[in-house]
Amino acid sequence: MKDELEIFLEKFNVLTLKSKEIPKNAAFVAYSGSKYDGRDFIQEAINNGAKGVIFEAQDFQKKLNLDIPSIAINDLKSKLPSIAAKFYKHPSKKISIVGITGTNGKTTTAYWLSQCLNYLKIKTAFLGTLGYGDANEFKKIQNTTPSAIDLQHIIRESYKKKYKNIAMEVSSHGISEKRIENIDFNYRLFTNLSRDHLDYHKTINEYAAVKKKFMLSEKNGKIIVNIDDKVGESIFNESMLPTEKKISFSIYKKSDIQAINISYNRMSLKFDLNYFEESFPIKLQASGEFNVYNILGVVGCLSAQGFEINEIIESLKSINPVPGRAEFIMSNDDLPMVMIDYAHTADALENILKCVKNNDFKKIILVFGVGGGRDKGKRKAMAEIAEQLADNCIITTDNPRDENPLEIIKDISKYFNHKPMEIIDRKEAICKAITCAEKDDLVVVAGKGHEDYQEIGEKRIYFSDKKVIEDFLKERELKN
What we know:
Layout: H1 4-9, E1 14-16, E2 26-30, H2 42-47, E3 52-56, E4 70-73, H3 76-87, E5 96-101, H4 106-119, E6 124-128, E7 131-134, E8 137-139, H5 148-160, E9 165-169, H6 172-176, E10 187-190, H7 198-201, H8 204-216, E11 222-226, H9 230-238, E12 246-250, E13 257-264, E14 269-275, E15 278-284, H10 289-304, H11 309-316, E16 327-329, E17 337-341, H12 346-357, E18 364-368, H13 378-389, E19 392-395, H14 405-413, E20 421-422, H15 426-436, E21 442-446, E22 453-456, E23 459-462, H16 465-479
Parallel strand pairs: 1-2, 2-3, 3-4, 5-9, 5-10, 6-9, 10-11, 11-12, 12-13, 17-21, 18-19, 18-21, 19-20
Antiparallel strand pairs: 6-7, 7-8, 13-14, 14-15, 16-17, 22-23
C-alpha cells in the first residue's frame, strides 16, 4: 500500500532545490542548509511556477497558507537520497556506474574512461567537475558530486538517452553528505589521497576515513585501487570482496596492473604495461607520472568490465587532453608556451611542476594562488613546493570567497625564503608572467584550469584563465 509521500510525489515530474529555476510540473524541496534555510524561499519557488512543496517539518514555526499541494517531513535532508531514488524509479539499477574517488586524478580518469568506453561502442556519459554529458558537450553543474536529487535525475536522464555507462567522480563532500546514497555502483575506483578539504573534514584521518568508507562499502561490484598510495593499499587489503573482484594498479609496487620503464616528454609518454602475467608497450599523447596512474586506473576499469587487453590498448589511442588539465596553450615560436592546470592542492602542484621540469624548458614561471574560506594549512605546503620547483613565482588571487585576497597572498608569500612577486589582479599576474617569459620558458597558470569564474564573496564573477591567455598571446603576436 502506498504511503502519503508516494501518493504526493505521483503528481510531479521533477524535484528541485532551486527556487529561481523551476522546471515544468516540479515540486520544490526545502530544508535548512549550512548557509540558508530553503524554507525561506518557498514563496519565491511558487511564484516561479512550483506546483508542490516538500519541506522540513522540524523547527519551522512559520505558518504556510499554500494554494498548492504540500507535505511536511521530519529529517527531510537525510531522507532525501531515498526519496529521490524512489521518485526517479531507482535509475542506477538500470545503468552501469563507475564511481571514482580520491584527491587528485578523478576528472582525468573519468574523462578518459568515458572516451575509451565510447570508442568500444559502449555509450558512456561523464559526470564530474567539468559537468555531465559526453566529451563533446557538457552541461555545467554546481559541484563535483551534485545533490541527491540532481544525481538521481541525471542518472534517469542518462538512461532515457540510451547511455549504458556513467563514469562518475565521487567527492568526499558527496560521500559525507550522503548525496550518493541509494546509487548502485557497479565499480569503484580509488586514485590517491593527499591533503585537501581539511576545512570540512578537520583532519587527514577523517578525510581518509570518508574515502575508505565509500570504497569498502562495495559488497557486490568490483573495486580498482592504486596500491602505491598508503590509503589505497589499506583499502585493497581490508576489502572483504573476493580476489576476483579486486584489481590493484601501481608503478612502484607489484600489482595486477603495473607500469614500468616510464619515459615522457612534453607531448607523449611511453611505458611497459605489466598486465597480470603479460607485458605490452604503451605510447600515448599525454605526459607525466601522474597521468600514468590515471591511465592505469582506466585500464583497471576496462579490465573489470571484461574487455580483452587488445581492445583496452586500442581504446587508449582514443583519449584526448582533458580541458584545463595540463593543457598547453600555443602561440607562434617567438612567444613562450603557456599551460593551464587545475592543480589546487600541494600534491597536484608538485605533480605538474615535476612533470614540466623534466621537459627541457629553460625556466618555469608559475602563477598561482590559494582559495579563501578553505583549509589554510595547505598554503605553506604549496608555497614550499612552488619555490622548490618553479624558477619564478607570481602569487595572485584564486577564489578569495569571504577572505581579503591581499591577506591570502601575504599569507602564502610569508612561507617563501625569497619573496615572490605579488599581483592581486589575476589577469594582470598572468599577463606579467607571459611578458617576463622568454620563448624557451614555460608559464604555468595553476589553480583554476577549466573554471570560468572567480568566487568573490558569495558571487561567481566570470573569469577564464584560458581566455585571458589566448587574448594576450594574440595581442603579442600582432605586435610582433
